[in-house]
Write a structure and sequence with these properties.
The complex is a heterodimer of chains A (405) and B (689). With 405 residues, chain A is an alpha+beta fold. Helices cover 23% and strands 25% of the residues of chain A. Chain A is globular and about 65 Å long. Chain B has 31 helices and 11 strands. Classes of the chains: A alpha+beta (405), B mainly alpha (689).
């Protein structure tokens, strides 16, 4: 989704400064209490929070949030952006080997009650582990125009044709709301993969929010210096991984106002991004973002470069919007393939379930990469991407402050 | 009209109010008329005046009869000071009131004698006038105290107290009139604690306990009125067998069984006796007679022989002890000989159990059992030392926790449930932590810091867990366990009334309940009674909390309680219950309901408050709060409601509680040393019950 650039009604409100302040106070009364994060003073937990008016403080409070949703933006219509069809899997590409493998798999399962490994000798070499072990099967990317959510990361509504000599040049998308210049090459890479098509595997996983609900580490965000949630020209935003997953309520939704201790590895605490709020829309400058991910067969970390957000600060205390940035290509490859169960690589299985071949993906990544050209080779090393997020008020606790009785 | 007459005849309080002016204003008028007739010198006028004196003085008999009849009904409805003034009013009536009917006899005699002897008429009239003025003075003294019973605006001083002999301000230790002994079934918590004390916490107890009920506001009192049903006994037996099985089996055998049999396949009387002596007194909470030891050893030997297993016999011993009435019930008894005041001292075993369950909510420990076995507990100095030892023990916290769990009705947590759509944050863990949170604050404040009980309603100290953090919208540093914290000055929470526990518990599954909350405050914390709701109440409007016309609970309650049948009771509960409306049925703070701002202001019997924090402040300043705790603690200690004769004792306990800064340990000490705790009345059969 894309946040509207400006709401005319709110523009009027902005001009009425006194009314804006009143709204800010009302807003603070709704979400201020829980969102006021614990400071570093080591004071008792209840020392700040409920009852204190954050706007009355000379030192604007630090507000904590936990991501209640964090998912790819997969379009829910299919206007035919993949005229050549969808990518194939190894099953279609190596039908004979896979037929024998599946028969053997079935036999062993029935005879011994176990599954044989994905790196079985009956199959071709596992290209998810060694991408050059198979020939490039060709990989279908979404090359035409499409309406895709995302941010204009480079500030240019570019096309590949108009940017000759620029290895990173690419065709931008248009947002569903009609904004041009959307940079989201990750969708160009995955848009013609069956599992990413509307209502298929990945879309369903995103809809059911499994990334958050079944994740091992909650994703936290801290906003400091926000003394007016509607208009503030100087805030700072930091992303952090928590040491624990989100807490779900009785309806299975991530609970707000929960306290999260941040992950002890400082690698997963981003720099503080400078940001601003205009008419309730929060935007930030770019920062690198590393987040710990543990979900199903994955236990690693994502690395987004020059990530920034554009999101709406809602009156109930939540923040909802987009994270855009450049997904480090190596990390992208790693995230797609570094899955293990009991030490057994599961990248091949994941590729099969999603509908692509690792060998094809490996060769396609440089074709769509659009960010961070290598100064020596000029080769682009990152892929623009966009995520939809919803953040709920929470408390970010630094581990050094922990003091159980 | 018929209703008025019926009310007049059937309601002694009403009769008392209607008639009690006669012995004052009536007597005053009669005295004036009689004085005028003496001045005038006409016999006919004197007879009229004397007749007035006779009638108005005689009315005092009806006034006192109706007052006596109204006493119990009225007493329960009064606040603490009202009760004390009522006691004083009765005391004055008994002391001076008899003078007034005597004046009626005197007036009647004067009329008769004057008709017979003309020369005596004037002197007789003067004598009656003097007696009438004296009666008027007596009636005024009595009425002056009576007027303060219901009108606190007249109370310019504290009411005098009376000892059991009716001596005003007496220092003699107030005595109980000897109410009946109790036979209390162990609560589930006490049963579990007993097993853990004797065999260790590793022993698992699997089974269903009989419902406990609540009487006189306490489970502790209800426990004296419950029995064991056949199915309940089956449960006790099954639990006993399972416990016994674990005790004799590895890995617990080596730790628990104090001796090894000569041959594990055969009976061993010496070892069996050692086991009975080791477990018996601690399970039955008294020394065992040699005869009953022998009986159990014999039964164990027989079982071992039949099974070819020594430990089968031990299992039988343990099982038999755990299903013994002396274990499942706290059976009280008294010594045969009564004291000079007619009271019977409790037997030492009863005393030891009473004391131990009061202070520790558990059976006597080894030192107390030793004192019991040596017969030293009847020595008041030894007993007092035991009281002090137990008060100083860390286990006193267990006793205080148990008392406040009972007072706060926390057993209701076991049946608590919330609508997950309305309160998705609710979970069993939230409920358990909310319960524990309040108990931690209570124990920390009252035991660890020996604080003033009334400050529980204002204290900002709190204990938090990560589970409770979202309910309070507060950060919690500790990833696991509890951490101490403090609400900030000016916070919207302070005092235990603002805890999640009460607001979770005293609410409906899908919404808050000012009425339940107010009822709890009135009955549990102020010891006031609120009549039950009529059977045919229409809750339709109140339940419809999505009604756009009545958005807040206050709006809905105002309409609901506009009917005459609801108004009176809701007037007692709602003004204070609405003070907690800023907390929803989950205990989370809220400023509005249905889009409308919540008005949490109200008054507690005339003391205004603006929100829940101020309600706690007002409650802490109420003289009824401390008094109510004393009464409740006494009920908890003796397992029954206090009798009217015990009112002086309670007043003394209350006074001592005030003098000790409303600290809980001195109160429990005073109760444990009071005659009401140490004695009982005549048992059903001479020699014990």
């Amino acid at each position: 989704m894309t946040i509207p650039a400006e709401n005319p009604a709110e523009k009027t409100i902005r001009s009425a400064r006194a009314f804006a302040l009143a709204r800010a106070v009302l807003f603070a009364s709704v979400f201020g209490m829980g969102a006021v994060a614990c400071d570093d003073s080591g004071r008792g937990a209840a020392g700040r929070g409920a009852g204190s008016d954050p706007l009355a403080s000379a030192d604007p409070p630090v507000r904590g949030y936990v991501m209640a949703r964090w998912s790819d933006e997969i379009p829910h219509d299919d206007p035919g952006e993949c005229p050549e069809g969808l990518n194939v899997t190894e099953v279609e590409y190596f039908p004979e080997q896979w037929k024998k493998y599946m028969a053997e798999r079935q036999r062993v399962r029935e005879a011994e009650g176990r599954f044989i490994r994905w790196d079985h000798e009956l199959l071709p070499p596992d290209a998810c582990q060694d991408p050059l072990s198979q020939p490039d099967p060709g990989y279908l990317t979404l090359d035409g125009p499409a309406k895709v959510a995302g941010l204009d990361l480079d500030g240019v509504d570019s096309t590949k044709a108009s940017s000759e000599g620029n290895a990173c040049a690419h065709d931008d998308f248009t947002s569903p709301e009609g904004e041009a210049g959307v940079d989201n090459q990750a969708w160009r890479l995955m848009g013609c993969v069956r599992g990413y098509r509307p209502n298929d595997l990945m879309d369903r996983l995103h809809q059911s929010n499994t990334m958050i609900k079944e994740g091992g580490y909650a994703i936290l965000m801290e906003i400091s210096g926000m003394d007016d949630p509607l208009d503030d020209d100087a805030v700072e935003v930091q992303f952090l991984s928590a040491a624990a997953p989100v807490t779900l309520d009785a309806l299975g939704e991530p609970m707000e106002q929960v306290s999260f201790t941040v992950h002890p590895d400082a690698t997963y605490q981003s720099e503080r991004a400078r940001g601003r709020i205009e008419n309730g829309i929060l935007t930030t400058d770019p920062i690198d973002l590393r987040l710990k991910i543990k979900q199903q067969t994955q236990d690693n970390a994502v690395f987004y470069r020059d990530a920034r957000i554009r999101a709406k600060v809602l009156e109930d205390g939540r923040i909802e919007g987009l994270v855009g940035g450049y997904w480090d290509s190596e990390n992208f490859w790693s995230m797609m393939n570094d899955h293990t169960i009991g030490g057994t690589p599961q990248g091949r299985n994941a590729a099969f379930n999603r509908g692509f071949m690792c060998a094809g993906l490996y060769h396609a990544i440089p074709r769509v990469a659009d960010g961070h050209p290598d100064p020596e080779t000029g080769r682009c090393t990152s892929i623009s991407m966009a995520l939809h997020f919803e953040a709920k008020p929470a408390f970010v606790i630094r581990p050094r402050l922990a003091q159980a009785d | 009209m018929t209703e008025v007459v019926n009310e007049l005849v059937g309601n002694p309080a009403y009769r008392h109010i209607l008639l009690n002016h006669l012995p004052i204003t009536g007597l005053a008028v009669a005295a004036l008329v009689l004085a005028w007739s003496i001045f005038e010198g006409r016999w006919a006028s004197m007879v009229f005046g004397l007749a007035l004196c006779l009638l108005t003085s005689a009315s005092a008999v009806l006034v006192m009869q109706s007052g006596d009849a109204a006493y119990p009904q009225l007493f329960e409805r009064l606040d603490g000071h009202g009760q004390a003034w009522l006691d004083h009013h009765v005391f004055l009536a008994e002391r001076y009131g008899r003078l007034i009917p005597v004046n009626a006899l005197l007036a009647a005699g004067a009329i008769g004698a004057g008709a017979w002897r003309v020369a005596w008429r004037r002197r007789l009239a003067i004598a009656v006038l003097a007696a009438t003025i004296a009666s008027l003075l007596a009636a005024s003294i009595i009425a002056e105290a009576g007027g303060k019973v219901r009108h606190d605006e007249f109370r310019t001083s504290n009411p005098p107290t009376h000892d059991s002999q009716g001596r005003e301000g007496g220092d003699a230790r107030p005595a109980s009139a000897g109410p009946p002994l109790a036979m209390r079934r162990l609560t589930e918590a006490q049963y579990r604690r007993a097993i853990a004390d004797v065999f260790g916490p590793e022993i698992e107890i699997a089974g269903r306990f009989e419902p406990e009920g609540r009487r006189e506001g306490l489970v502790a009192v209800s426990s004296a009125f419950v029995t064991v049903t056949p199915s309940g006994f089956e449960q006790y037996e099954a639990m006993a067998r399972e416990v016994a099985r674990q005790v004799v089996a590895e890995p617990h055998r080596a730790r628990l069984i104090p001796c090894a049999p000569a041959d594990p396949a055969r009976a061993d009387a010496a070892c069996s006796e050692a086991i009975v002596r080791a477990f018996g007194p601690r399970i039955l909470r008294r020394p065992l007679e040699q005869e009953e030891i022998g009986r159990r050893v014999s039964a164990a030997g027989e079982a071992a022989t039949r099974a070819g297993d020594f430990f089968a016999g031990i299992e039988l011993i343990v099982t038999s002890l755990l299903v013994a009435p002396d274990f499942l019930f706290r059976i009280e008894s008294v010594l045969t000989d009564a004291g000079a005041d007619g009271l019977h001292s409790l037997s030492e075993a009863t005393l030891a159990s009473r004391l131990s369950f009061l202070l520790w909510n558990a059976g006597p420990d080894d030192p107390l059992l030793a004192a019991l076995a040596e017969g030293r507990l009847s020595d008041s100095e030894v007993y007092a030392r035991e009281v002090d030892r137990m008060l100083a023990s860390p286990r006193f916290e267990d006793g205080i926790r148990a008392f406040f769990e009972d007072l706060f009705q926390f057993e209701e947590f076991s049946d608590l449930g919330k609508d997950p759509v309305r309160y998705p944050m609710y979970s069993a863990k939230v409920a358990a932590d909310a319960r524990e949170q309040t108990l931690r604050v209570v124990v920390d404040h009252l035991v660890a810091h020996q604080g003033d009980y009334r400050e529980l309603f204002t204290t900002r100290r709190i204990f938090m867990t990560r589970t409770l953090g979202p309910v309070y919208a507060l950060p919690v540093q500790a990833e696991s366990g509890w951490e101490a914290a403090e609400f900030a000055p000016g916070d919207r929470r302070a005092g235990i009334l603002t805890h999640a526990s009460f607001n979770l518990l005293k609410a409906h599954p899908g919404r808050s309940s000012p009425t339940l909350r107010g009822l709890f405050l009135r009955e549990a914390l102020l010891c006031q009674s609120v009549p039950p709701a009529p059977a045919n109440v229409d809750f339709g409007l109140f339940n419809a909390d999505d009604n756009p016309q009545y958005k807040t609970a206050r709006d809905r309650l105002e309409v609901h309680s506009s009917s005459a049948s609801c108004r009176n009771c809701h007037a007692l509960t709602d003004p204070i219950g609405l003070g907690l409306e800023n907390f929803d049925g989950m205990g989370r703070h809220r400023s509005s309901e249905g889009g409308a701002t919540i008005d949490a202001s109200g008054d507690l019997d005339g003391a205004p408050f603006g929100d829940a924090v101020e309600l706690g402040q007002v409650l802490s300043e109420s003289p009824l709060v401390g008094r109510c705790l004393v009464e409740t603690a006494y009920r908890y200690a003796v397992g029954r409601a206090a009798t009217l004769e015990e009112r002086p004792l309670l007043r003394q306990l209350e006074r001592r509680f005030e003098q000790e800064g409303h600290a809980i340990a001195p109160l429990m000490r005073e109760i444990a040393l009071s005659e009401g705790f140490l004695t009982a009345g005549r048992p059903a059969e001479e020699g014990g019950s």
